[in-house]
Design goal:
Length: about 625
């Protein structure tokens, strides 16, 4: 009897003991249960014949609840059946006008609006991969992004006509067909397609039109800046589409939730986690053209939003808005995103109430990812039993100066210890592949790291430095290589350097990112040398950068140097420049600040520096 009493008492105390000594045990169990369920689903989809894609999932949702609202946009409401019919019209029109067939790649140059959704769905119903072009890019970058995906058709929004016309001669030379989503257009080489879509049949299309699509087929091309050069088109297979779509479910969202998408749909976050995730869940989406801090919570209250997306900067912007009495008057319970600082995270929760922040880590082209399912402030994920089964990864010692992994006498990499910062690498296997970049074998190979722990093994080089603490939480530390992140966008320093050197007065340019107190990521700065006998042209430099780069990629600080310091292998040194930053009292070189209101660079004075640091000048 005493034994049974002791046993029952022990069982009664077990939850309290677990909370004390294993505080995340139950959360680990719940997460692993859901993750395992989604993993089993993915395996079933891989084996299912005919293949069941996210488009089939959408079609099932449209049959199950045709009158349920799928998208709210600027006062208009579109049901699942509305979007189903519109996507059918797009698909039938493009079959007729463009003779599109399975496997043809089509580039989409569209902003955040409902036609983006049904145009993509229409293409997917035809088995056509879509290349999602960043609507901020122009000229050389735009032409490059279009060309590397192998598309023969470009579909653009009416308000992006000027950007298309700028590269139209090159497109015509390549025999590219250009369609504008407008009623009429007079430019030779551009066809208006709205009327054809309006006249097209809204009858469903036969699945046989995409009969050869399978789990390994390319579904999308999503662009990433990577470490060097112009944006790269990452292959996104149907397997990766499915895997990304499960993030909403793993984070706790259901078909009853209303999900707020204010990130661009050309990003993997907005498109895969936001839009495709909502299709997988069968929930309702509130879509905005762009993020607005001042209208964010009004939208949440108006549409009863329960799930939201963020990047680190968006949460900071929300925290910077004037305090209101109704700050906690909303129904948001889950926020999914990445890149938020711990102090902003805490401030966000203190001000706007208890919201489950699901900070995650992933890369569009990567083969490893994490999600923080515990509400642990500051962490990007947590290691559990399933982590290394789903994503076999490691942190290895990394030499920041040499920008390469540290290797032992056998030429193998050295694992980073607990609590030590290391480079994240993910093992490349059949279950965790790295497909690479379209039309860029060189950059694809640069992301493959061999002989990591054994001769002949192969890992994906994330280019990110992480740290794992003794409680199994993972923390992001920094990004290595030639990329920095600003305003939620990756900025490739090589591309910016190339454009800077087209300014008549500039001989060489070394671009890097520097930290600014109170801001996420790193802001652009460039050390430049001038051509002999020339002075820095403040207006011309702004003009060239404005013509070729979006605002977030333009260097806000310029440092004039007599020569640029090189390594023994003729690589530009950045570490010291990054450490020195842009403080005019510490730097003897001339410094300039990009004044967007005056549309030119101006000398960076101590007064301007102080205003930046006190955040009186907004960056």
């Amino acid at each position: 009897m005493l034994i049974w009493f002791t046993l029952l008492a022990g069982l009664a105390l077990l939850p309290a003991l677990l909370r004390t000594f294993k505080p995340y045990f139950f959360q680990d169990c719940v997460y692993m249960f859901h993750a395992l369920g989604f993993g089993i689903r993915l395996i079933k989809y891989k084996r299912r014949s005919p293949f069941y894609s996210i488009v089939d999932c959408f079609l099932d949702a449209a049959k199950k609840h045709p009158h349920k609202t799928f998208v709210h946009f600027e006062g208009k409401t579109y049901t699942y059946s509305d979007v189903e019919r519109e996507s059918n019209k797009v698909a039938n029109a493009l079959r007729s006008v463009a003779a599109l067939k399975e496997g043809d790649t089509v580039a989409l140059f569209l902003g955040n609006e409902p036609c983006f959704i049904w145009t993509w769905l229409g293409l997917a119903k035809l088995g056509c991969p879509a290349a999602l072009l960043n609507f901020n890019i122009r000229s050389r970058s735009l032409l490059h992004c279009f060309s590397c995906c192998g598309a023969n058709v470009l579909i653009a929004a009416a308000d992006l006509r000027d950007a298309v016309e700028e590269i139209l001669p090159a497109l015509k030379e390549k025999g590219i067909t250009v369609y504008l989503l407008s009623d009429e257009h007079s430019t030779d080489g551009i066809q208006s397609i709205n009327q054809k879509i309006a006249e097209a049949s809204d009858k469903p299309l036969s699945p046989s039109l995409r009969s050869n699509v399978n789990i390994k087929t390319t579904a999308l091309y999503i662009y990433t800046s990577g470490t060097t050069g112009l944006p790269k088109a990452a292959y996104v297979t149907h397997e990766r589409v499915w895997a990304a779509s499960f993030i909403q479910g793993v984070s706790g969202l259901t078909s009853e939730d209303v999900f707020y998408i204010n990130l661009p749909l050309y990003h993997s976050a907005g498109f895969l986690i936001g839009l495709v995730g909502s299709i997988e869940r069968g929930n309702t989406v509130v879509l905005r053209r762009k993020f607005s801090a001042s209208q964010f919570w009004d939208d949440c209250r108006k549409y009863n939003i329960t799930g939201m997306q963020y990047i680190g900067e968006t949460l900071r912007y929300l925290c910077n808005t004037p305090t209101k009495e109704n700050d906690r008057d909303h129904k948001v319970r889950i926020a999914i995103g990445n890149g938020v600082r711990a102090d902003v995270w805490k401030e966000f929760l203190d001000r706007f109430g208890h919201i489950h922040v699901r900070e995650l880590y992933a890369a569009t082209e990567g083969n490893v990812g994490f999600v923080n399912y515990t509400d642990k402030v500051g962490a990007i994920g947590r290691i559990n039993i399933l982590s290394k089964i789903f994503f076999p990864f490691a942190l290895i010692k990394f030499d920041i100066e040499k920008e390469e992994p540290v290797r032992n006498s056998q030429g193998l990499c050295i694992p980073a210890q607990r609590g030590e910062v290391g480079l994240l690498v993910g093992q490349i296997t059949k279950r965790t592949p790295f497909v690479g970049y379209a039309g860029n074998k060189q950059q694809t190979e640069k992301k493959r790291l061999g002989d990591v722990f054994e001769k002949g093994d192969l890992y994906f080089n994330s280019g990110d430095l992480l740290r794992i603490d003794h409680d199994n939480f993972i923390y992001f530390q920094d990004r290595v290589g030639d990329t920095f992140r600003w305003k939620g966008e990756n900025v490739a320093t090589t591309e910016v350097s190339d454009i800077l050197t087209t300014v008549d007065c500039i001989e060489e340019a070394n671009v890097y990112g520097v930290k600014v107190e109170g801001h996420e990521g790193r802001i652009g700065m460039a050390a430049v040398t001038l051509r002999e006998g020339r002075e820095f042209d403040c207006v011309a430099a702004f003009s060239v950068l404005a013509n070729y780069l979006p605002v977030y990629a333009r260097p806000r600080f310029i440092r004039i140097q007599n020569s640029l310091e090189m390594t023994g292998t003729f690589k530009m040194k950045k570490v010291k420049l990054v450490e020195e930053g842009f403080d005019p009292t510490l730097i003897q070189d001339r410094l300039y600040f990009l004044d967007l209101t005056r549309k030119k660079y101006i000398p960076l004075t101590r007064e301007i520096f102080n205003s930046i640091m006190s955040q009186d000048i907004k960056l």
